[in-house]
TrEMBL record:
Membrane association type: Multi-pass membrane protein
Keyword Transmembrane helix carried by entry: yes
Protein name, entry field: Putative Tic20 family protein
Keywords assigned by UniProt, alphabetized: Membrane, Transmembrane, Transmembrane helix
Annotated transmembrane regions: 6-23, 43-62, 68-86
InterPro entries in the cross-refs: MamF_MmsF
Keyword Transmembrane helix attached: yes
Subcellular location: Membrane
Species: Planomonospora venezuelensis
Main location per the UniProt record: membrane
Signal peptide per UniProt: none
Organism superkingdom: Bacteria
A Pfam match: MamF_MmsF
Length: 99
């Protein structure tokens, strides 16, 4: 279930991790922590994409969007593999909205 939280982030954005967090927050502390981590990362990505859209008017946002996307895919795959092994993974670039 923890791995699914990270994988759903690839497909559904913040909705998948949010559903996993709300569904499993009382069941397993490990799944809750990983779902919160995935949710925080998705919310951080939303802020990054919004900043890129604003910066697109200065043409730098068009360069920033692919960098954010490639980095997010790499981090989410690493997180999913770590969660599959049962390890606690923390994204290196993450704003902690949900604890």
């Amino acid at each position: 279930m923890a791995m699914l939280s990270h994988v759903l982030g690839l497909v559904t954005g913040f909705v998948g991790p949010l559903v996993m967090y709300l569904a499993k927050k009382d069941g397993s502390p490990y799944v809750r922590q990983q779902a919160a981590e995935a949710l925080n990362f998705q919310l951080t990505l939303m802020i990054g994409y919004l900043a890129s859209i604003v910066l697109a008017f200065a043409l730098i946002g068009f360069l920033l969007m692919p960098v954010i996307w490639i980095g997010s895919v790499i981090f989410m795959v690493i997180a999913a593999v770590a969660a599959n092994r049962g390890e606690r993974y923390r994204y290196p670039i993450n704003i902690r909205f949900v604890s």
